[in-house]
Amino acid sequence: MGRPLLNRRLAEFGTTIFAEMSALAQRTGAINLGQGFPDTDGPEEIREAAVRALRDGRGNQYPPGPGVPELRQAVADHQRRFHGLTYDPDTEVLVTAGATEAIAATLLALLEPGDEVIALEPYYDSYAAGVAMAGGRRVPVTLRPHEGRFRLDLDELRAAVTPRTRLILLNTPHNPTGTVLTRDELAAIAELACERDLLVVTDEVYEHLVFDGEHLPLAGFGDRFPGLRDRVVTISSAGKTFSYTGWKVGWVTAAPALVSAVRSAKQYLTYVSAGPFQYAVAEALALPDAYFTDLRADLRHKRDILAEGLRTAGFEVYQPAGTYFITTDVAPLGEKDAYDFCRALPERCGVVAVPNSVFYDNPDAARTHVRFAFCKRAEVLTEAATRLRTAFAR
Ligand code: PMP
Ligand code: GLN
Prior knowledge:
Distance between the termini: 55 Å
Structural class: alpha/beta
Number of strands: 15
Number of helices: 13
Radius of gyration: 21 Å
Shape: globular
Mean pLDDT: 96
Order of helices and strands: HEHHEHEHEEEHEHEEHEHHHEEHEEEH
Largest sheet: 7 strands, mixed
Bound molecules: 4'-deoxy-4'-aminopyridoxal-5'-phosphate, glutamine
């Protein structure tokens, strides 16, 4: 067998950093602030809605390809209620197996081999793999620390567009930096897309987890930029908003031609998934405003516990405006390499984190950046903060 089994497109992608670090946490018994998942489940009534659907035989057989009508309607209602966006549940909404499948199907549907995809770096790991599987070429535009936040350099973004650029892959609120793109940044992206005839795929799975400022969906700029609506694919999912990351219910909202293209790829990936959970998520999306406000307040409090702990321990903290994550710099601790630091961290103080360098094509931009997840119980975060302080504070 002279030829490697794993094909050339995927050769660079080994085990995901999340699987690697969760396994490390399990092996060592350390507190897992690596992989982003809550350590408590979401609303009880939504779990009960899933049980009811299972018992009543709703979704136990293949649901419709585009998703059950109740969920498509609920997604459309949600987009109108929170963002003032109008989508036809029959032609402009597609239910997927989490945002992950939505991203993969979108890239597989929209890219020709050799097309360039501009992605904000650091990027969520499935973007690079999705672009590779579709035969595309990723072109990173690096977010850099500036006045305490990771900022997009719009000139760099404009300069990255070439005649081969097919799409821009956005993520706001942004994993792992916690940056929330501003109105001006989003307007500039919308303008660029229209001017240069580009598609934009925007991953907004953390849309409800914004602590400072507000989440603005890119699709909302359609009024200012005619034609934008036909270029934007918006992706979200129930995992983060309802604290059921294992259910894997996601969705795409976009103009009919885009949804139809994405559906063409999606139908040969999973065809359909999560039948009974789709009904439960339809109910979740209709929860009262207080649910969403409380979720945000709870996570803001958790962010503050961990950020304070990390600062006291001597880490440089880039305060995240949203998401589950805090990016830190461990250089002030005398550390040189985030990956080495993360591998040794369980032994040193019983905590697991993730090195941001794995989210870069140019890892030099983040050699000493480490991500910590704060979607954990307050007492767990307090204990982690104590351990980090004990190990590192001078
Ligand atoms: N996009 C981003 C930015 C994420 O952080 C994640 C992981 N939580 C996903 C997509 C995947 O979402 P899902 O679990 O719904 O597939
Ligand atoms: N999105 C989660 C994170 O960034 C991980 C999801 C996964 O393991 N694929 O931690």
